[in-house]
Each structure stands twice: as C-alpha cells, then as structure tokens.
Write a structure and sequence with these properties.
Elements: H1 15-21, E1 27-29, H2 37-54, E2 59-61, E3 69-73, H3 79-83, E4 96-103, E5 106-113, H4 116-131, E6 140-143, E7 149-153, H5 183-194, E8 199-201, H6 214-227, E9 233-237, H7 242-245, H8 257-273, E10 279-282, H9 299-310, E11 316-320, H10 332-340, E12 351-356, E13 380-385, H11 401-409, H12 421-425, E14 436-440, H13 453-467, H14 473-484, H15 489-510, H16 541-545, E15 551-552, H17 571-576, H18 586-589, E16 592-593, H19 604-628, H20 635-667, H21 682-686
Parallel strand pairs: 1-2, 1-3, 3-5, 7-8, 7-14, 8-9, 9-10, 10-11, 11-12, 12-13, 13-14
Antiparallel strand pairs: 4-5, 4-6, 15-16
Helix pairs in contact: 2-4, 8-9, 11-14, 13-14, 14-15, 15-19, 19-20
The structure holds beta-D-glucopyranuronic acid.
Beta-D-glucopyranuronic acid (BDP) binds at residues 163-164, 205-206, 283, 287, 322, 361-362, 389.
Length: 696
C-alpha cells in the first residue's frame, strides 16, 4: 500500500465484519442514475466501496425487491422514500439521513436527502459506517453541514510549484490542461466529497493575473467540469491589479468606472465558461500584494468592487484579513484587527472576510484571532493551514485536529459566555447566512498526496470539522486510524495516543510557553531564534521573543502593546493576568523575568529548558510507539513513517539544543541540574544553512 487511496481505501474488512454486513448490502437502488452524473458517481462509489470492503459488490437494481437493499434517493425521485415520511425538511440543501427501515416487507437501508449532493454525502457516510465497523442494523443518522463554504485553498502556482507545499508539485498540470484530464482530478474530487468539502481555490493567494486570462480560464473550466458531479465548486485567487496587468488599463482603482466595468466583464466571461463558479479569494495590501490602499481606498471598497462584479451571478468574495504593514510601529498581532474592525458594516452582502486562526501566522500555537466576535455585521470565515509550514513541513508528524479544536472551541465572550469561535464562523452568533471555512491544502503530486500517511489525517480532520465544527479531534482520529490502517485495538489505542500528543510535542520542542515565530528565515524550517537582522522588524524571531539578560516574552498587556484590549472581557482580563493566562500562552502575552516562579515549582528559565526536553521525549516516545506497531502495519507505510519519525527525533533534538544554546547565551543562567548541555556550540547551530528547501 502506498497511501494513494486515502480514506477511499476499500481493502476487505475482517471476515467477521464482512459476514455481518453482506446480507445487509445485497442490492443497490438509485433511481435515475443513468441520467445524472452525481447519481452515477454515487453508484460507482458504492459498488466499488462495498465491493472492496465486503469482497462482494451489491447488485444494482431498478427497485427494492428483497432484504438487504440500499435505496439512495430524494423523496422527489422515489415513491418508496416519500412513503417513509422522513423529516427531510430538517436536512437543508446538503444534509442527508441514513436510516434502516422496511419497505414493502423488505428490510434495508435508505439514504435520503433533498438534493443529489446530499445523497452523495450520505452515501459516503454509509461507506464510513462500514469502514469504522459501525452497526447498520437500526441505524438512524441525520446530518447537515453547519458551515456553507467548506474550501481548500491551494497555494499552487501556474508553473506547478506550490508555495509552502511539501508533497511534490501541484496536482494541477496547467500545461496540459484542458486537454489532458489526469484521473487524479476525479480522485481528488471523490476524496474531498467524502469529507464534505464543497469548493476549491485553485491558485495561490499570491496570484498571477494570468489565471484570469482566457487561456487559463479554459483550464479552470475543465477542472470544474470534472469536479461538478462531486459538488466541488471552483474558485480563483484574483490579483487586484489584474485590470492593469491583463486588461490594459492604467489603474486598478475601485472607484474608476473602467475598472468596475472590467471586473464586471471578467465575471461575465468566467460564468460563461463556469456557470457555477464560486467566486474570488483575494490577498490585498499584504506582503507586497497590490490592493485598494494603493489608491487610498479601504479594504471594504476593494472587496465591494469585486463583489459587485460577481453579485449578478451569485458569486462571493473571500477577502483575506492577513495584513500587516511595512513600517507600522504597532504590534503585528494587532494590525489586522486595527485595519478591519472599523470597516464592520461596510462590506457588501456577498463578501466574507477570511481570517487566519491566530493573529500572527499559523504558528504551532496562537491564541484565537481577536477579530472573531469583534465584527458582528460582517461574516467572517476561518482560514486554517493544513500544510505544516511552521510545524516541520511534511517531515514531522503533527496531527492538527487538537489545534483546530482548541481554536474552534475557544470562547470569545463577544456576546457573553458560549460565544465560541465555532459559533462566529457557523453564523449562529451574529445571524449570518454566508458562512465559510478554508484550509490551506497540503496536497501535491506525491503518490500519497500529502508527503506522508499521517499528513492525510490533517486534510481529513479539516473536512470533518468544516462539516461540523463541534466534531472532536479524538473521534476523528479514531475514525481515520480505522479507515487508514486497521481495526486492531492495539493500532487504535497506540495510534490515538500518537495523534493526540503529536502537536503539543511540536509546540514543546519549537515554541514552548507561548513563544512564536522562532523558525529560520524564509523557509521556516528548523530553529532560528537568534535571527534579528532582517529588513522588517516583524520578520525577526527576536521581535517575537524579546529575550535579554533580564527576561523573555512579548508584553501585550496595557504596559506593553495592549493587544489584550482587542479581546472581549473576560478574555482580555485573563490574557492580561500572568497568573490566569496559563502556561500555554504565557510568553505570548507577558514579558517575564527568568526567575519568574511557575506553577510547576520551577522558575521560568528552568521551565523553558524542561519544555524543550519534554518535546524531545515526546517524539522519542512516539517513535517507540510506532515501532511497536510494526507487525500490525503494512510494510511500505510502516517503513516510511518510521523513517520520518527518525528524522523528527533527530530534529526535535536539534531544535532543543539550538534553542537552549541560544537562550542560555542570552539569559546567562546555568543549566538546571541534571540537564544535558547542547551537543554543539551556538555558532554551530547558527551556521546551519540550506542551499534549498521545499515550498519557498
Ligand atoms: C505566510 C506564508 C506566505 C503566505 C502568507 C499568506 O509564509 O508564504 O503567502 O502566509 O498567507 O504564512 O498570504
């Protein structure tokens, strides 16, 4: 097994499970499947899935005529489903139900929904029941997504390089599109539909205007055609200056009528080619990208320009809030809020503002972004990073489920207790219909899609939490392990331990106690806490840790940058309090003396060293755990994971040694008793350079 199959891995279940399920899955009834590409896809998937898992494919039949049927239909398409009087009104456009029931004396299972897309999601859920060995007998499931736009964001360039991609090249072969349609495109759509993802932004947010030229639109349209039966809509990152670059205008000013006309015509052209085109994602006035501020206009004026072009066609604008200005003396963590919160109420109805989970940039741990909850009149969508730019690329094992869960469950208190981030983005807190969540994809041309088997879990958990942000990381981990490896209880308990602790391990050996952005320059791989000479202050690790002989940490209380004031009370008070903030975010919000007494009984310096040691120990443990599973995992996937864990152990040690060497040079404090000194001198670690690193 090489990992290509992802969660569409339909290897035969254990004999006992096959025997149990076979009589329940004899016959497949999908009325109308000849005419509809989506129904045909469902039929194909169920025949293949059930056939693989049970080593016996169900017969396809025009009507229910025996026990063990699976009837997949909307009430509209099937009298048998209508007669059941299911509460389909509760399911919305994309929801579904899976019920065991009796039809004219025959026992079987119905998948019902209001739309074919709902049926597709329900059918994948049925397959998941088998893959996780759940009972079909008496099953009664109702499910609908809580979030409308569930998207992947590809940071893929037209030359097939992938910004922050660690799994090979882009899967989009732009050169040969639209003529050559790699079967991978279909498998991509299947894999995403299986976890409820319903849209994809094909190109990098650092966008080339070429993506909007007729040549490339035809290519995007070909992909849209492949994805359509699976409910995946295509979106594009739009470069704000495109009217100048490819439109021949001399300005991209949102107030200019020619610019407005240009975007309107561009939208018309796109919708002629892609009638269900989703809309634009825009990175503007951020890290050198063009934007409305180049013309003295606000982010809202920029977003509304594109929104008005898309509006007649039903498209949306996802306007990113990831902005920080050059030469702005303000704490970088405060800038997005300062720019955007005053614009609340100024965005058109088809604009949604896309906010990263934390105020800096996809660090191993950040507090939730203060914009969540702070813009009641504006729909906000979440941007998570699935690709692990700051967590050891595809090489280190870190399951991001616990991180996503931590953010989604964080309570903003914006409307009193219970105002979680999840409720902000599912629209329930402030009554928004337009809702969304995006994950920056970790997908590439590697055979296993994501550079390692365990990285697949991050794509998987993103989809599951996008469907329902209340979903627990542990529950998803268990499902994923069952589907990906086996139902063996030892694999499950050991695998769950590994997944649960893996992200905290990374936090401990890279950025413990609320530290952030200590990675080496540019590529962000490996330690670089000493870096302090880059052109912009907020690119330097030293800007973030602020360590000197007296102490360490970023004072974001009212004595310092006062970033805490961007949070609602009592969150602001908690973050501002040294004793209440908790160890996890301590140095994010506070600058403290090295001898500050920690709750552990150690002082801050000793605690920092202790955390680095803990991180290394956790990786060592994870590696031993994986080793113990050798007899229970297929050779190819076992071996690759084992080798990567060896890399991770070596590099966790590197992080620990380099960080301790550096911070000790600053703190000038002795190592606590019994602690091993770093293997090399600080100069040795500072001299480590890569001639090349992926994804940069
Ligand atoms: C940072 C990445 C950079 C992205 C940027 C963004 O280092 O490559 O372009 O975020 O999100 O994390 O726009």
């Amino acid at each position: 097994e090489d990992g290509y199959d992802l969660w569409l891995r339909y290897q035969p279940l254990e004999a006992e499970a096959r025997e149990k399920y076979r009589p329940q899955l004899r016959q497949l009834v999908i009325p109308g499947s000849e005419q509809s590409p989506t129904l045909k896809a469902i039929e194909g998937e169920l025949v293949r899935g059930v056939g693989g898992l049970l080593k016996r494919a169900p017969g396809v039949s025009a009507g229910v005529n025996g026990d063990g049927f699976v009837l997949v239909a909307t009430p509209k398409a099937s009298r048998d489903v209508r007669a059941q009087n299911f509460p389909v009104h509760k399911l919305g456009e994309e929801g579904y139900l899976v019920r065991s029931t009796t039809i004219r004396g025959h026992r079987g299972t119905v998948v019902a929904a209001n739309s074919e897309l709902g049926l597709l999601y329900g059918s994948f859920h049925l397959l998941r029941l088998l893959q996780t060995r759940s009972a079909l007998e008496g099953v009664s499931i109702e499910s609908r997504p809580r979030i409308g736009l569930r998207l992947l964001n590809h940071w893929d360039n037209l030359d097939r390089s992938v910004e922050r991609g660690y799994a090979g090249q882009s899967i989009w072969d732009w050169w040969n599109l639209p003529d050559v349609l790699d079967p991978r495109y279909t498998d991509y759509a299947r894999a995403n539909a299986a976890i409820g993802i319903n849209g994809t932004v094909l190109n990098n947010v650092n966008a080339s205007a070429d993506s909007l030229t007729p040549r490339y639109l035809a290519k995007a349209a070909a992909l849209a055609d492949v994805f359509r039966p699976y409910g995946i809509r295509v979106y594009l990152s739009a470069r704000f200056s495109a009217p100048v670059e490819i439109g021949g205008l001399d300005t991209a000013d949102p107030k200019d009528p020619d610019v407005q006309r240009w975007w309107a015509h561009k939208a018309d052209e796109i919708y002629r080619l892609i009638p269900d085109f989703g809309g634009f994602l825009v990175k503007a006035n951020s890290e050198g990208q063009p934007g409305p501020q180049d013309y003295g206009r606000s982010h809202a004026e920029g977003a509304n320009l594109l929104a008005r072009a898309l509006n007649p066609h039903g498209g949306v604008v996802m306007w990113r809030a990831f902005v920080y200005q050059q030469d702005n003396p303000e704490d970088r963590a405060k800038q997005a809020y300062s720019d955007f919160v005053p614009l609340d109420g100024q965005f058109d109805d088809n604009v949604i503002v896309q906010v990263k989970n934390g105020p800096i940039d996809f660090q191993p741990r950040e507090p939730f972004h203060p914009m969540f909850g702070a813009m009641p009149k504006t729909p906000l969508m979440m941007e998570f990073q699935i690709t692990k730019e700051y967590l050891g690329f595809a090489s280190h094992l870190a399951y991001l489920g616990p991180m996503y869960e931590e953010v989604l469950r964080a309570d903003t208190f914006a409307e009193g207790p219970g105002s979680t981030v999840a409720k902000v983005i599912d629209g329930s807190l402030h009554g928004h219909q337009l809702t969304g969540i995006a994950g920056v994809a970790n997908i590439g041309s590697d055979r296993d899609w994501t550079g390692s088997t365990f990285n697949q879990a991050n794509w998987y958990v993103f989809g599951r939490m996008a469907w329902n942000p209340q979903t627990g990381a542990e529950e998803v981990a268990r499902d994923w392990l069952k589907i990906t490896f086996s139902n063996n209880p030892v694999v499950l308990t050991t695998g769950q331990d590994m997944l649960r602790d893996s992200r905290q391990a990374v936090v401990d050996y890279m950025t413990p106690l609320g530290l952030a952005h200590l990675m080496a320059t540019g590529h962000h791989y490996g330690p670089g806490p000493w870096v302090s000479d880059l052109a912009r202050p907020e690119w330097n690790p030293a800007y973030y840790h602020r360590a000197d002989k007296n102490g360490i940490g970023f004072d974001r209380t009212s004595e310092g940058s006062n970033a805490v004031a961007q949070y609602a009370d009592p969150v602001a008070k908690r973050f501002a309090s040294r004793s209440d903030v908790g160890d996890d975010l301590l140095l994010w919000f506070h600058h403290l003396p090295w001898d500050y007494p920690m709750t552990s009984g150690r002082d801050l310096w000793e605690e920092l060293v202790h955390r680095y040691d803990t991180g290394v120990a956790e990786v060592r443990e994870m590696r031993a755990q994986w080793q113990s599973l050798e007899p229970l995992i297929d050779a190819e996937r076992f071996d690759k994971t084992a080798r990567l864990l060896r890399v991770q152990e070596r590099e966790a040690q590197w992080w620990r040694d380099a960080s301790i060497a550096y911070f000790q040079s600053v703190s000038q404090r002795p190592l606590p008793e019994g602690v091993a000194p770093p293997a090399h001198s600080l100069e040795h670690y500072q001299a480590v350079k890569y001639p090349w690193a992926p994804g940069h």
